[in-house]
Design brief:
The chain has ten helices and ten strands. The protein is an alpha/beta fold. The strands form two sheets. It has a six-stranded mixed beta sheet, with helices on both faces. Helix 3 runs parallel beside helix 6. The protein is globular. Bound molecules: adenosine-5'-triphosphate. Adenosine-5'-triphosphate (ATP) binds next to strand 2 and helix 1.
Length: 239
C-alpha cells in the first residue's frame, strides 16, 4: 500500500532523514519506534506532504505522491493525527470534525457528513456528549480522540498516528487503542503508528521499524522486535 524508497528529508541544510526505506501492506498496523529527535515525526510529515525539501520516492497504492500537496495526499486516502493533536482549540468538537471533511464537504452531501459524524460518535461516545464544547476545553484523552476522529473524517485508507498516547492515563490509552484495533478489524484500515510507548506499540502492531538519527536500523515482525536484544535494552529497559 505504501512504499518509501531512499527518502531524505531536509530542514534547510540539515538532513533529518537519511535514505529511509520501508513498506506497509494493506490492513497492517506497522509501528515506528525511536528516541526523541530520531526523525519519526519528520517521516510522517514527509509522507503527508508537510516537509517541502525531500528526495526519494513515496508510493501510495502504486502512485508517486512525493511533492504533492497535503490536500491532494489526504484526498488520495492518507490522513495524519499529528503530534500534539493540533486541534482548532477555539472551535467546537463538531466544527473540528467537519474540518476533517474539507476535501469533500459541500452542502449537497450534508447527509454523508451527518452519517460520518454519527459514526464517529459511535466509535467515541464521549465526543458525542461533548459535541458543542470547544476543543481547547476537552481533557487530554478527549482531545486525542478528536484528533484521530478528525483524521478519520477524511475517509483515509492509511491512518498515520504520531505519538497518540503522549500525556494520557493508561485507561484512556487502552480505550483509544481498543477502538483503533476494532476499527481496523471492521474496516481493514491500515495504520502506521509512531510511539514512544514501545510496549504499547509492539503490543498492537504486526510489524515494526526502529529509527535512529534519521536511519532505519532494524525492522521485523512484532515477535522479532520484542525479543531483539537492542530493543529490549534501549527501549524496554531490560538487559
Ligand atoms: P520526538 O519524539 O521528540 O517528536 P522525532 O523522532 O519525531 O522526535 P523529529 O521531530 O522528526 O524527531 O526530528 C528529527 C530531527 O529533525 C531532530 O534532530 C530535530 O531537531 C530536527 N527538526 C525537527 N523539526 C525541525 C525544524 N522545523 N527545523 C529544524 N530541525 C528540525
Amino acid at each position: 500500500m505504501l512504499t518509501v524508497r531512499s527518502l531524505k528529508s531536509y530542514y534547510e541544510s540539515i538532513c533529518a532523514l537519511k535514505a529511509v526505506s520501508l513498506h506497509i501492506e494493506k490492513g497492517e498496523i506497522v509501528t515506528l519506534i525511536g528516541a526523541n529527535g530520531s526523525g519519526k515525526s519528520t517521516l510522517l510529515n514527509s509522507i503527508i506532504g508537510l516537509i517541502p525539501r525531500i528526495t526519494g520516492t513515496i508510493l501510495f497504492e502504486g502512485k508517486e505522491i512525493q511533492g504533492l500537496s497535503s490536500y491532494t495526499i489526504v484526498k488520495l486516502g492518507i490522513a495524519l493525527a499529528p503530534e500534539g493533536r493540533q486541534l482548532f482549540s477555539p472551535m467546537s468538537v463538531l466544527d473540528n470534525l467537519i474540518l476533517g471533511t474539507y476535501h469533500y464537504y459541500s452542502f449537497k452531501n450534508r447527509q454523508k457528513l451527518n452519517d460520518k459524524i454519527e459514526w464517529i460518535f459511535e466509535l467515541f461516545p464521549l465526543l458525542g456528549k461533548r459535541k458543542k464544547q470547544l476543543a481547547g476545553t476537552l481533557s487530554g484523552g478527549e482531545q486525542q480522540m478528536l484528533s484521530i476522529s478528525r483524521a478519520l473524517m477524511s475517509e483515509p485508507r492509511l491512518l498515520l498516528l504520531d505519538e497518540p498516547s503522549t500525556g494520557l492515563a493508561p485507561k484512556i490509552i487502552e480505550n483509544i487503542f481498543r477502538t483503533l484495533t476494532e476499527l481496523k478489524e471492521k474496516t481493514n484500515l491500515t495504520i502506521f503508528l509512531v510511539e514512544q510507548n514501545v510496549n504499547l506499540a509492539l503490543d498492537i502492531c504486526q510489524r515494526g521499524y526502529v529509527i535512529e538519527t534519521g536511519q532505519i536500523i532494524l525492522s521485523g515482525e512484532k515477535e522479532e522486535l520484542m525479543n531483539n536484544k537492542e530493543v529490549l535494552r534501549a527501549y524496554l529497559g531490560k538487559e
